[in-house]
Structures are given as C-alpha cells and as structure tokens.
Amino acid sequence: MSRTAGGSLVVVTSLFPEPNETFIVRELGVLCRRGFALTVLSLRPRPAVVADPEARALLSHVVYPEGAVRVLVAAGGTAVRHPVRTVRLLGRALVDATRAARSPSLAAKQLAIVPIVLGFVRQITADVSRIHAHFASVPTAAARMLAAFTGRPYSFTAHAWDIHVPENKQQLPPRIHDAAFVVTCTGFNWTVLREVAARAEDAAKIHLSHHGLDLAAYVPPTTRHPHLIVGGASLTEIKGLHHLLDACARLRAWGLPFECVLVGQGPERAPLEERVRMHGLGDAVSFTGQLPHQDFLDRLRDATVLAHPSIVDRYGAMDGIPNTILEAMAVETPVVATRLSGIPEVIEHERTGLLVDPHDVEGLAAALARVLRDPELASRLGTAARAVVLERFDLERNVARLVDLFAGEVPSELEAPSTLRRAPSRPARPV
After folding, report:
1. Right CATH for 215-392 from 3.40.50.300, 3.40.50.2000, 1.10.260.40, 3.90.470.10
2. Which listed CATH number (2.60.120.10, 3.40.50.2000, 3.40.50.300, 2.60.40.420) goes with 8-212+396-414?
3. Local structure of residue 123 (DSSP, 8 states)
4. Do the first three CATH levels of 8-212+396-414 and 215-392 match, i.e. the same topology?
5. Taking a C-beta distance cutoff of 8 angstroms, is the pair 228, 302 a contact?
6. Which of 35, 195, 275, 397 has the fewest CB atoms nearer than 10 Å to its CB?
7. Residue 111: strand, helix, or coil
C-alpha cells in the first residue's frame, strides 16, 4: 500500500549532486514531498557549482565533510564519547576492507572514509528509522559502518558498475545478507544480485524498482533537426562513443548528411577529440561539455536520434538502463543502442528502438542511417518508446514502491521483475 510517509531517513551518497546521477536527485525530491525528514550524507565535499535547480532545492538537507582538520576533530570527539560503538564501527570497516584486499585502492577508499563516517554519526538522531545508500560500493560501506555504530537497519540501491566490477561484486554477499532490503533498477541486475546472494532468504530481499521521470517535464517537440545525432551525457569508456565516431566516419563515407553532438564531460574527452581529428570529422562533430539538465533535455528534443552504443569497459563495468535512453524515449526521440545489460528491457528491436551488438560499428552506422533516412520509421519508434515510459517509468508511482519498503512492507510488484519484456543475456567481456 503506497502512502505519504513520515519519519526520518538518512541517505548516503558518494557525492551530492553528481551531474550524471539526476535519478537520485529526483527520487530524493519525491521522498521529501512525501513527508520524509531527509538527511543526505555526501562522502565528498560540496561541488563548487550546482547547476540543477532540483538539486539546489535539496542542498539544505545535505551534510558535507568540512575539511580534513574538522573531520578528524569530529571523529576524535565521537571516539571519546562513544568508545564501544566506535570499536564496533572500526571492526565493521576493517572486515569490509579485508574483503576488498584484492583491490588495494578500493580497500583504501573504504578505510579513508572512516573519519568522515565517525563525524557523521551525530546525524543519526533518535528519530532516524533507516539508513539507505545509493550504490553498493563505498556508500554502502559507509552505511554499514553507521549501522554498526547505531544499531539502525540499513538498505541500499545497486545500479551498475557498483555490482558488475569484480572487486565490488565480491563484497556483495555479506552486504546483501546484512541489509534489510536491496533495490536495483533493472531486471538484469536483479538476476545478477540473486545469483550472488549467499542464501535463498538473502535473494528474497532483492527488489526491482525502475527509476522514474517526472513525465510532465518531458513533452515531445513539434519539430526536430533533420539530421542531428546526440550521444554522451558522460564521456566515459562504457558509453562506447569511440564506436559512435567510427560509425560517423562510415556515414560520411556513404555521403549521408549529419551532425553529431557529444554531451558531457569525462576522461574520454581527449581521446574522442583525437578520434574526431583522425577521421576528419571536425566540421560535423562537436562537444558541449557538461550541460545543465534542462539544456541536455533540449538537445534530446531537438535530436533526430540518440546513439547510445554502450560496452563493457576494461574493468567489467557497464550501464544498467541509462537514464539518457529513458529521457530520449520520453520525448519520442528514437534510440539506437546496444544489446547490453538492462537496455533490451526498454528498447525492443524494431518496435521501441533499434539494437545492435556491442562493438558492431558497421551495424551501428547502418541503424543510424536507417533512422536518419526514414522519418516515418523514426516517428513510429519514438511514439512506441514514449508509450513504454508512460506505462512503466512514472517517477511518483515508482518512488511510492520505495516508500512501502522504507515502511517495512514488500509490495508484490517488487518481488520479481514481472515487467520485463524478455530476459536479457549476460554480455561477454571485451577482448
């Protein structure tokens, strides 16, 4: 039974707001509107600029580390006042770090946040009923420390790289076992997590709840650019944008007019710019850098097609259901994407978009060419895609299911991925 909820909830994130995690911002906004007294603990300092107005509206709920000296003073004060609880927290931290020993950098990250978490324990007031973490990696390590100190239950939402990268995956069984519940956003992830769970009763704690969109903000356009390809949102390896540029070179060779805009920022920007120069595409490809969310949405509304050629990166990370794909679908922008992870749960080939295999540059170019050349196909795909989002990705409805979980209820629709059109296959690692 969905409800307007009261009570206090603490949510742990690596960084709030992270520009590419707008789904967290939207979810937290709904929880506030539903009556939760919300405290967000950001393990990293506040960004210099917070462009998203929805994120700015939540900043009064966010607690940040306040510099190394203050962090250490606060941690020391906690240890002096609560020595037994501090030992419990340290014990949990050391056990988790030991489990991460095969990845020294991850173990170091988990130990490095111990003083920050000790400083944060004062935010777990008597009325806080639950601690929840976004991402199963370091934020959940922090939530486990807070739970060990306070005795409160914890839960977490698992998303993508935080469960697929091997060093993160190996830590999942005890985190699932000790959690009150686990939420994930794709059927593919739901299957992975249930396979990882150590016991049947642990697997039963794992629930599928898709991210959602405030659908009123996603109005399809009346006109579009006639040959605009949009890609990106973040310039990282898993987005496969080097394959998009290679596909653009094919389009140029075929004499097909196009413009390609890559949105976002990230470590792949310099290699991608070099690839543009290598292909001689400087007149057809541009980079926007990081955009405010509304500006990015405007680009999607103007686009002829969204290209999202996701891959498994060198570390084993991959997308889930990328929010960019859902947003494009919501504004009837046709999507060309890869058969990977949770993407086939929303992109049904030839009905709600076009799918190609990861690393298939020729297939990607051919699919983009089909959409660019055939406005009727583009319109048909976009209309069907929006219908899927309206049916399954309404923000208020999906967050209502989380409210039930926070209230200790288990809605039947969260017990299994019954909304899946098909069971996606596990992708192969790149050669």
Report:
1. 3.40.50.2000
2. 3.40.50.2000
3. G
4. yes
5. yes
6. 195
7. helix
What is the rounded CA–CA span in Å between residue 86 and residue 109?
Answer: 19
For residue range 212-229, list pLDDT tens digits in order. Answer: 999 999 999 999 999 999
Beta bridge partners of 307: 231, 336
**Amino acid at position 129, single letter:** S
Q: Which residue, chain included where needed, has tokens 């098909």?
A: 422
| Helices vs. strands in the chain: H and E counts, helices first | 19, 13
Extents of the domains making up the chain: 8-212+396-414, 215-392
- 241: enclosing H helix or E strand: helix 241-253
pTM across the whole model: 0.90
